[in-house]
Amino acid sequence: MKEKIMALVNAETVDMAQFKALCSPMNTADIAEAFVELDKEKYIRFFRLLPKSMAADVFACLDAGEQELIAKELTDTEIGDIINHLFADDAVDFIEEMPANVVQWVLANTKPEKRAVINQLLQYPDGSAGSIMTTEYVNLYEDISVREAFDEIRSHGVNKETIYTCYVIRHDHLLTGIISAKTLMLAKSHERIGDLMDTNLVYVQTADDQEAVAALFKKHGLLAMPVVDKERRLVGIITVDDIVKIIEEETTEDFEKMNALAPSGEPYLKTSVFKLARNRIGWLLFLMLSATISGSIITGFEDAIAFLPALVAFIPMLMDTGGNAGCQSSTLIIRGMAVGEIRMTDTLRILWRELRIALLCGLALGVVNFARIYLMNGRNIMLAATVTLSLFVTVLMAKSIGCLLPIIAKKCRVDPAIMAAPLITTIVDGGVLAVYFSFAKLFFKI
User: Fold this and answer.
1) Using an 8 Å Cβ cutoff, are 239 and 223 in contact?
2) How far apart are CA 20 and CA 140, in angstroms?
3) Cα Rg of the chain (Å, integer)
4) Which has the closest alpha carbon to 193: 203, 184, 202, 182?
5) How far is CA 121 from the centre of its chain?
6) What domains can be seen in the chain, in order of their start residue?
7) Pairwise CA distance, residues 359 & 333, whole Å
């Protein structure tokens, strides 16, 4: 189907009837996918061929780069039609990514009532529940009947983002319950909404963090969630499609931080080389300068190295093992905190668990390491013992640091993802060298 659409768009003349017949049964996300595979000069041509009822939905499925490219080529009337047909949260997402001059032009061509809603949503802090909610929902008063509820849904439901769940309010707009479409369809027409509604509510306030909202969606298996103000008055809802975007954004941000990258918030291929380099240079400089600690420790033990040059050969192995052991622990702890499995009160339990894991890992690695060094280095038992004992202590130290640093970061209100592989490796490296050369001086009486 997608290939047929692209063939039509690429043709010199387009059979509009055939084009509409092909697009009508297709999902808007699939049409958007076909759209981005076109040459850039054909973007506008393709978009203007879409039926007006479908164009806004396809526009919402495109990323910010394609949206900006289209917007700049549309007329005042065309951009107004698009924004007025978008759900409020999708319109806000688009506007937040546009340059100031484009935003002014877009809002100037938006209907006053839609513009007022957009401006209201733009006032909420970035990353809050209010910033990702939509105002297109069905609310029902608790004192109306099921018949009146269906009349309300028929009158206003066509322009709402979802009608599968309706929100029950009092006349002062206070949220009192929810009622599903299934409940309405199975109820008698004369029954009162207030008697049928579910009062066991899960809701968030406009200032709540979007990560906390995502956690509630996962915990309760929701498709939509009401958003209220401080007085518990209903002001909007958040739908699961927005939560999927939030989870993707938060996961991407954590992944970048865990790998010593400053979050960019833009697709890799659409981010300039200069910006990508800028996002990396800061961390690379910090880690490079931090590595001077390791160099200073090695310099401080030059007498040990001069006495037994073979010690140098085992430095990379010890440092790599320490870094890897620390990263294993930190990754699991960061992930556990992100999904709510680990809390601050679990710190001692986590440390005790990681120490036992480190003990088992250290013993297993130590046995193999001792045999390898003893057999491959002239059966030098003192050298094998020095390296093996250093390895054992390294694993214990690395796993302890790896599990504690993310928790400490969380306690200090710093993103735990920062305390991941690069930083933990740098910290552990210094400790590894100090332990290794201290044991060498002790065993060889240097």
Assistant:
1) yes
2) 37
3) 30
4) 184
5) 21
6) 2-126 (1.25.60.10), 139-239 (3.10.580.10), 291-444 (1.10.357.20)
7) 18
- Residue 234, CA distances (Å) to 50, 122, 203, 205 in order: 36, 18, 10, 9
Give the DSSP letter of residue 236: E
For residue range 168-208, list pLDDT tens digits in order: 999 888 999 999 999 999 999 999 999 999 999 899 999 99
- Residues 263-314: tens digit of each pLDDT: 555 666 666 777 767 767 776 777 677 667 777 777 777 777 776 788 888 8
Neighbours of 26 (CB within 10 A): 16
**Span 2-32, pLDDT tens digits:** 566 666 656 656 566 666 666 766 777 777 7
Separation in Å, CA 419 to CA 277, 352, 397, 410, 425: 21, 20, 15, 10, 10
Distance CA 79, CA 347 (A): 54
C-beta atoms surrounding 52 within 10 Å: 10
pTM, two decimal places: 0.63
Distance between start and end Cα atoms, the chain: 77
Distance CA 9, CA 17 (A): 13
138 contacts 146 by C-beta, under 8 angstroms? no
Question: Could you tell me the sign of the dihedral formed by the alpha carbons of 319, 324, 326, 327, in that order?
Answer: positive
Q: For the beta carbon of residue 75, count every other beta carbon within 10 angstroms.
A: 9
